[in-house]
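Objective 1.3, modelling of assemblies. Example input:
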Amino acid sequence: MNARINNPVRHTTMDQALVDEFEALLASEGVRDVSHWTLPNDDVPFNEDDALVEFGLCLDSAFEASSTAIDSIGAAKK
Amino acid sequence: MIPALNESDDLTVSADETDDLKRAARRCVYFVAAFNAYNAKLRNVGLNSAVMNKVLLGNCIESYFLDIRRLKTFHGMERADRFKIAGYSLKWLSKIKPIQVGPLEAVPPAAKRRGLLINADFALICAMSIAKVDYAKVDQRIRNGLLYTAHYRDIEGGNMALQMLTLAQAYPRIPQVT
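Predicted structure (tokens):
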């Protein structure tokens, strides 16, 4: 294992034709579309200053909401 | 002949370390400022001993950015949207638990519960704020489920990002007109 890590450029006895076939397959349209699929992102980049303003605006109502949730916690009856 | 796979490549990431450090530091400051505002609310409900452990927070934020960087490298993603930021922040804040509380023996039951759940609660409020979810409108059963999940379960950031997207669609926070 260590020898492999220390000597990364090793030659292989793998079937070169099959390697070529897979290289073409992985680069082909359709396969590549799914393998390298990224979901669309139309968000503006995160900005800490703006995020803090947002946090300040929602803290009161969020804290109240979480208080209701926390107050409703009860242990299971034995 | 082709070169054999070098396993160590899987662990190699190339990114500007200085930029990453600055970004992580800014994010730490964001969470400290958010915690200070949250902590003022805690004092109003009788919990006076909460502190943000900066070392734990740093570990939390660095873990977050490493997670996001791996995600970007693996998926060829340019940057994370707010749902991923919310989901992965929730994951790491809940896991590392950077907020610490003093003795809770003498505080009222409601403050005890809050003290026990403080990291999950803060993480959720932050995540909702980042994902622009109106947390107050979220059904209480869902809120309780989220709190339980953040406190007890192993959270996966990607799944939480999808949860945040779903919640943001169902309970969007409408910007206030000033």
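Helices of chain A lie at 2-6, 16-27, 31-35, 48-71.
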